[in-house]
């Protein structure tokens, strides 16, 4: 069973991270006003981006209680941090006045035209990842939830053509893959999958599934897509406490374990650019961002 200590995250914003997202994918407002740089913003991923989708699930991976959210005016909301998530901060930089609502909050027509957050704590690319801690919304289900949203936007705007023209201007961001390692591949009870796949083979398995998921996102109208690589997860408190570091700051073997995934993700993005010249895809280097942020990060421990 996964303890609540396994789901600890930080609230931070890197200027480099935001610069990459805004410049690479979003068109700036010509007049410098607070009009959002994109008309809508859709968020997919795991607990780094989750804003409350796990609140009503039967899972240990939910944080709608103190001390989470201690720096938010509303208090605990289901965010796995003391304050804003990186996805929230990107939305603010893009000019959105309010946080993008979680899908689980049943946003109304006005809200979904601005965007929806589908991210779910403990979720991964693979359906089974993170399920040892209870329910979550894996990435494939997040996409099915997005299909529901797209259908509603078609109804609101009157036609699929109008809806896809609108959706093509929006920003889509996804942070996935962390839990396929933390809460799947490197779990003590996951010897079967480690025996079946070496690290490079497991990365290939993830990218094959991820490729199908991102292609589906394109089919649903996405044309400006940012995909975050896996960060140095060997530096998370839970893995340091569980695996030990032999005197090093982090569990270096785990940090090396995810390198093949990030390498293959970069190659996937290059392929997507060739396959879909009418779309923009960007790689967000989570390892470099984590290095820039340094010791100023604030962790919530429970």
UniProtKB/TrEMBL annotation:
InterPro entries: GDSL, GDSL_esterase/lipase, SGNH_hydro_sf. Keywords: Hydrolase, Lipid degradation, Lipid metabolism, Secreted, Signal. Gene3D superfamilies: SGNH hydrolase (3.40.50.1110). GO terms for molecular function: hydrolase activity, acting on ester bonds. It is found in: Secreted. One of its GO terms (cellular component) is extracellular region. The keyword Plastid does not apply. Belongs to the 'GDSL' lipolytic enzyme family. Pfam families: Lipase_GDSL. Residues 1-32 form the signal peptide. This is GDSL esterase/lipase. Its main location: secreted. It comes from the Eukaryota. GO terms for biological process: lipid catabolic process. The keyword Methyltransferase does not apply.
């Amino acid at each position: 069973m996964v303890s609540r200590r396994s789901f600890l995250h930080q609230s931070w914003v890197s200027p480099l991270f935001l610069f990459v997202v805004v410049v690479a994918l979003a068109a700036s407002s010509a007049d410098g006003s607070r009009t959002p740089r994109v008309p809508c913003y859709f968020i997919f991923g795991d607990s780094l981006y989750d804003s409350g989708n796990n609140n009503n699930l039967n899972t240990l991976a939910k944080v709608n209680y103190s001390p989470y959210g201690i720096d938010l005016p509303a208090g605990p909301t289901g965010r796995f941090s003391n304050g804003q998530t990186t996805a929230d901060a990107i939305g603010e930089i893009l000019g959105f006045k309010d946080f993008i609502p979680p899908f689980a909050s049943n946003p109304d027509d006005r809200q979904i035209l601005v965007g929806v957050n589908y991210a779910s704590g403990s979720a991964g690319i693979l359906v089974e990842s993170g399920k040892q801690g209870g329910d979550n919304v894996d990435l494939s289900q997040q996409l099915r939830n997005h299909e529901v949203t797209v259908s509603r936007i078609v109804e609101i705007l009157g036609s699929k053509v109008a809806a896809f023209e609108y959706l093509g201007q929006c920003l889509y961001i996804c942070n996935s893959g962390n839990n396929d390692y933390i809460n799947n591949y490197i779990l003590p009870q996951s010897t079967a999958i480690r025996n079946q796949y070496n690290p490079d083979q497991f990365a290939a398995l993830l990218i094959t599934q991820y490729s199908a998921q991102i292609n589906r996102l394109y089919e649903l109208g996405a044309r400006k897509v940012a995909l975050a690589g896996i960060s140095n997860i060997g530096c998370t408190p839970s893995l340091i406490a569980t695996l030990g570091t032999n005197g090093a700051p982090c569990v270096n073997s785990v940090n090396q374990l995810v390198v093949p995934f990030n390498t293959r993700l970069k190659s996937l993005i290059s392929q997507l650019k060739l396959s879909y010249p009418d779309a923009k895809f960007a790689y967000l280097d989570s390892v470099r961002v984590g290095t820039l942020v340094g010791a100023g990060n604030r962790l919530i421990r429970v």
